[in-house]
Design goal:
Bound molecules: nicotinamide-adenine-dinucleotide
CATH topology: Rossmann fold
CATH superfamily: NAD(P)-binding Rossmann-like Domain
Strand order of the largest sheet: 3-2-1-4-5-6-7
Strand content: 15-25%
Shape: globular
Helix content: 40-55%
Number of domains: 1
Largest sheet: 7 strands, parallel
Order of helices and strands: EHEHEHEHEHEHHEEE
CATH architecture: 3-Layer(aba) Sandwich
Length: about 280
């Protein structure tokens, strides 16, 4: 963390969803280090309790809140609880869910869960946050965790990429409508980041390919994305709204991504990770 960023958020209250692990937990820790009081929310109650305890043990201020963001009643209860913290300056709508599978195979329940968690859940959280911010009249900053797949969709992630593309569009319209209340809305689009969400896939052999296709030579860390979220949440991005920021180490330059197929064998596409090898020869 840059030294001059410390304390930027002193006196502010932030909500971070999906904060029991990965990017959300790193973001909660980062915003707390920057001085915010953080409401750490997730469907995983034990997870958020542990993260909040860590933050407090490190000298920060945090409260754990359990919420399934696909359930409108639970989101309403979350925002009722948040009123105990007084104001709400920052909302990081980060919780998400995704699985990969061929378009021909994806089941309706998997498609629906992808949209329920990523789109409907994020909508419920962002709408409640925006309403609270308008009511309080202090402005605010909303950051949504989208994905590089929103703008560079990859094979086998049709539901996930479609859902994240919907979030980018939602953020654009939120920025347009909420600017008049001094509420900014932006998205981060992480690339492959080492978290619980990607662990099994990366461990099954995909890591070799994602590393080969990362210009910076590594996968993302939760803290990389947390840094970008902290920028968009805080005062140093005061004139930034309606933007979607890639935080992917340049991996999107390899679009359409790390699953490829040889289309010379029509109807027998065998989707395998695609390794682009630099031969050292000029084209
Ligand atoms: N890891 C990556 O490579 C990657 C890349 C692009 C985008 N993202 C996005 O980053 C965000 C964070 O994911 P992560 O990588 O840290 O994974 P993660 O699995 O560590 O974190 C996701 C969190 O969301 C929570 N969650 C899931 N469903 C929920 C619900 N219904 N209500 C409330 N919380 C719920 C989970 O309990 C979990 O703590 C997600 O939106 C994900 O789509 C991740």
């Amino acid at each position: 963390m840059p030294e001059n960023a410390a304390g930027d958020l002193a006196g502010q209250v932030a909500l971070v969803t999906g904060a029991a692990s990965g990017i959300g937990a790193a973001t909660a820790r980062r915003l707390a280090r920057d001085g915010a009081t953080v409401a750490v929310a997730d469907i995983n109650g034990d997870g958020v309790k542990a993260v909040a305890e860590d933050i407090v043990a490190a000298g920060g201020a945090a409260t754990a809140m359990t919420c399934d963001q696909t359930d409108a009643d639970q989101v309403a209860a979350l925002f009722a609880d948040l009123e105990q913290l007084g104001q709400l300056d920052i909302c990081v709508a980060n919780a998400g869910w995704g699985r990969y599978g061929a378009f021909l195979d994806i089941s309706l329940p998997a498609w629906q869960k992808t949209f329920d968690v990523n789109v409907t859940g994020t909508f419920l959280v962002c709408q409640s946050a925006a309403r609270r911010m308008v009511e309080l009249g202090r402005g605010g900053s909303i950051v949504v965790t989208s994905s590089c797949g929103a703008v560079n969709p990859v094979a086998l992630f049709s539901a996930y990429c479609s859902a994240k593309a919907a979030l980018n569009t939602m953020v654009t319209v939120m920025a347009y409508e909420l600017g008049q209340f001094d509420i900014r809305a932006n998205a981060v689009m992480p690339g492959v980041t080492e978290t619980a969400m990607t662990e099994a896939l990366l461990d099954s052999g995909a890591r070799d390919y994602t590393l080969a296709e990362s210009p910076l030579g590594r996968n993302g860390r939760p803290e990389d994305v947390a840094d970008a979220i902290a920028f968009l949440a805080g005062p140093h991005s005061g004139f930034v709204t309606g933007s979607s920021l890639l935080v992917d180490g340049g991996a999107s330059t390899f679009s359409p991504g790390w699953f490829g197929a040889d289309f010379r064998e029509r109807h027998r596409a065998n989707w395998t990770p695609r390794h682009v090898q630099w031969t050292g020869r000029p084209g």
